[in-house]
Design a protein that fits this description.
This protein has about 325 residues and is of the alpha/beta class. Helix content is about 40%, strand content about 20%. The longest helix has about 35 residues, at about 105-135. A 7-stranded mixed sheet has the order 6-5-4-7-10-15-16. It has a 4-stranded mixed sheet with strand order 11-8-9-14, with helices on one face. It starts with a strand and ends in a 9-residue tail after the last strand. α4 (about 85-95) runs antiparallel to α5 (about 105-135).
Length: about 325
């Protein structure tokens, strides 16, 4: 099953807020519902957001034929629904550029983005697994990862988790070590679910245990995704990624970022220029409607952090491997 797709004139997507308890497919027939799905993280992950953005413009064009102003307004709202992931804005803009040619052209662009992301996932899995084999001398690898970077974050396959899945297929995975990923537990809810579906050996750890696990020599490589990679190689990803990079550097463990070319942003010079999304305080002070802190507690809840290129061993895309540790340029 694809995480997101276009079926019978509407968007179908897996509601990731309902996992792992139940597998629910949302039918999205208007832009307002899509924006809400994006904001509550029913659909998430940079590649999937790019597809969602493009398909959202296709929805708007199909529902408002001849009303370009309305489509542009809807596209602008979609583009602003999550600011950090470059794929969302890029998908919206690419589909919107086809609007003068009519709704069918907009849909064709959206479907092309979907198919490109599927192909990119397969290519990243191969390149990433090959690189891990070069970096890690062990025959069977212990790979640490954060958040969710599998098929749920893309359309099929994924980014960093696709590499782990490919290692498993090759018989080269001893275990995946997944961080639970506070505050919404994407690692515990989504990554553990995907790994179980794959039949891949895995264990779950609390986020605060990661540095110790690395320092004790219990992981051979860290693999993460990225929502945006800047021109100098800095990578924005789920908050906690920078902590992992620092811990990996201390432990002498390779730290690899896996992201499609569609997540690279050569127009942004460095990580300091990336807008970091601030999520609602309730995500930290409660979980699934149950308060976990005193009433009135305020929270700082950045969704992402930025790992500088100097802490990244390599960037794996669908087209290339960039050895940042050797000074190779991204752009």
């Amino acid at each position: 099953m694809r995480t997101i797709d276009w079926v019978d004139g509407e968007i179908r997507l897996i509601d990731q807020t309902r996992l792992p308890d139940e597998l629910v497919v949302l039918r999205v027939a208007d832009v307002d519902r899509l924006i809400e799905a994006i904001r509550v993280l029913a659909v998430r992950g940079a590649p999937a957001l790019g597809v969602a953005g493009a398909m959202g413009v296709a929805l708007a064009a199909a529902r408002n034929p001849g009303d370009e102003a309305r489509v542009i307004t809807d596209a602008t709202r979609l583009r602003a629904s999550r600011p950090t992931a470059v794929n969302l804005a890029r998908g919206v803009d690419r589909a919107l550029a086809c609007l003068p040619a009519g709704p069918a052209a907009v849909l064709a662009a959206a479907l092309a983005i979907r198919d490109e992301e599927i192909a990119a996932s397969a290519a990243m899995a191969e390149r990433g697994a090959d690189l891990v084999a070069e970096l890690v001398p062990r025959a069977r690898v212990r790979a640490m990862t954060i958040c969710n970077t599998g098929a749920l974050a893309a359309v099929e396959g994924g980014t960093a988790l696709a590499v782990i899945a490919e290692l498993h297929r090759r018989g080269g995975l001893e275990e995946a070590i997944a961080l639970e990923t506070r505050p919404l537990l994407q690692g515990a809810r989504l990554t553990a679910w995907e790994l179980a579906e794959l039949g891949a050996p895995h264990r779950l750890i609390v986020d605060s245990a990661a540095a110790s696990v690395l320092a004790r020599g219990l992981a051979d490589v860290v693999l993460i995704g990225a929502d945006r990679v800047t021109r100098n190689g800095d990578a924005a990803n789920k908050v906690g990624s920078l902590s992992l990079a620092l811990a990996a550097r201390h432990a002498g463990v390779p730290f690899v970022v896996v992201a499609p070319e569609s997540s690279l942003d050569p127009d942004t010079a460095a990580g300091a220029d990336i807008e970091i999304e601030e999520r609602p305080a309730e995500e930290v002070t409660s979980f699934r409607g149950i308060r976990t802190s005193p009433a009135g507690t305020r929270a700082l809840n950045p969704a992402f952090d930025v790992t500088p290129a100097s802490l990244i061993t390599a960037l794996v895309t669908d087209c290339r491997v960039v050895r940042l540790d050797r000074g190779e340029p991204v752009a």
